[in-house]
Amino acid sequence: MIEQRRFTVESGDVRPEGSWVYLWIDAATNEIAYIGATAFEPELRAHIHMTHPDPRLARVKNEVPGSEHRSFVVRAFRVPEGLDRAEIKSALHAILVEGERVPGGRPSELAEEISRLVKE
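-> C-alpha cells emitted (120 positions)
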C-alpha cells in the first residue's frame, strides 16, 4: 500500500498534524545533548535546528557546543493525542537531565516510559 500524508497549508502557514518529543544523543558519548518538542516531523525539525539562520529556531546549532562537528542519534517519540508535548518535554528533562522524579499523571507516565526506552 502506498503511504499517503495529508496536511493543511492555510494563508501560507503549514498546519502540522502531529506532536513529537525528541532527544539528541551524542553518538560518541551516549549523552543527551538536547531535548525538544515539535508539531513538525522530527527530521524537518532536526534540519531546522542545524541550518536555520534564526538562532531561536536553530537551537542545537547555537546551544550545543561543537554541534556542527559532532554526530548525534535523534530519537523521536510521537505524543499521543490529548497530551501536552511541552509537559512531556519538561518531565523528560527532569528525569533524564536532572535525575528527578516527577509528579504522576499521563505526561509523566509517558516521560518515564520514554526514559526507560532511551536507557535500554
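The helical segments are 42-51, 59-63, 85-96, 106-119.
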